[in-house]
Amino acid sequence: MFKRKVRNWNVPKGQELTEMDKKILYYQDKGCLVPKRKLIKTPEQIEGIRRSGEVNTGVLDLVAREIHAGMSTLEIDRLVYDYTVSHGAVPAPLNYEGFPKSVCTSINEVVCHGIPSEFDVLEEGDIINVDVSTVLDGYYSDASRMFVIGQTTPEKQKLVDVARECLQIGIEAARPYGFVGDIGNAIAHHAHKNGFTVVRDLCGHGVGLEFHEDPEVEHYGRKGTGMLLVPGMVFTIEPMINMGDWRVFVDEEDGWTVVTEDELPSAQWEHTLVMTETGVEVLTY
Question: What is the CA radius of gyration of the chain?
Answer without folding.
Answer: 19
